[in-house]
Amino acid sequence: MSAAPLVGYSSSSSEDEDEAKAGAQAQPGAGSCPRAQSPLPSQRLPVPDSVLHMFLGTEEGPEDDSAKHGGRVRTFPHERGNWATHVYVPYEAKEEFLDLLDMLLPRAQTYVPRLVRMEAFHLSLSQSVVLRHHWILPFVQALKDRMASFQGFFFIANRVKIYTNQEKTRTFVGLEVTSGHAQFLDLVSEVDRVMEEFDLTTFYQDPSFHISLAWCVGDARLQLEGQCLRELQVNYRYGSTEGAERVTGCVPGVAGELTGPEG
């Protein structure tokens, strides 16, 4: 398990770069000679299409094409200068964990074939929120200050559970934390205080801390809960290569960290 909870950022746009323009108008000098009649204004030449379309991406928001992002749908509207932000503890997957995932995913895919394995693993400490660009550094520093005094702890995740995001646009198969829950609540309490300082949404009132294993677009709870969930729990309990019945992890110490912009 990595030592620090991370702050994941997704750049909605670049920092505002508009500059005010000022125009100056020349004044005729006193006592000057009468001027000759001004010639008729010349006809403006058309601007080539290639030039007109050269800078379309600099002022307009990014195109929301879900096909380019695995079918994922933006959960809040694009706005210039905003960064999507998510605080989490990364989970370092060991070989046994990946073997277990390779066993569980095909079983779940017999019920929902579109399920996709997660590329990285973590435990969330916040909802996705939106930060203005100039808030990023003070936000990260506030997290570091809040987390500096935390001691390391161990946790166990050994219960398969089905989750959706708040908008029900994505479904996840996860392993729920059953030991270490109180320590994660303490972490969330400090993260929530930082969120309140920046007038951002705090975490859920009764959170279920978990490691997501796989995901798919849409609300697939009907297909995954019930018989599928029971089979996954049985396979998890008896199917690991070492006969282990739990996934364990360690949070040795915590601090905020900026991971950089995403897509």
From TrEMBL:
Recorded superkingdom: Eukaryota
Residues of the active site: H122, H210
GO-annotated molecular function: lyase activity; poly(U)-specific exoribonuclease activity, producing 3' uridine cyclic phosphate ends
Signal peptide stretch: none
Protein keywords: Hydrolase, Lyase, Nuclease, Nucleus
Residue stretches of biased makeup (Low complexity): 22-31
Name of the top EC class for this enzyme: hydrolase
GO annotation, cellular component aspect: nucleus
EC number: 3.1.4.-
UniProt catalytic activity: a 3'-end uridylyl-adenosine-RNA = a 3'-end 2',3'-cyclophospho-uridine-RNA + adenosine; a 3'-end uridylyl-uridine-RNA = a 3'-end 2',3'-cyclophospho-uridine-RNA + uridine
Subcellular location: Nucleus
Stored SUPFAM superfamilies: LigT-like (SSF55144)
Annotated stretches, region: Disordered: 1-43
Gene Ontology process terms (BP): U6 snRNA 3'-end processing
Functional summary from the UniProt entry: Phosphodiesterase responsible for the U6 snRNA 3' end processing. Acts as an exoribonuclease (RNase) responsible for trimming the poly(U) tract of the last nucleotides in the pre-U6 snRNA molecule, leading to the formation of mature U6 snRNA 3' end-terminated with a 2',3'-cyclic phosphate.
UniProt similarity note: Belongs to the 2H phosphoesterase superfamily. USB1 family.
Quaternary structure and interacting proteins, as annotated: Interacts with PLRG1, CDC5L and PRPF19.
Protein name in the entry: U6 snRNA phosphodiesterase
Protein encoded by which gene: USB1
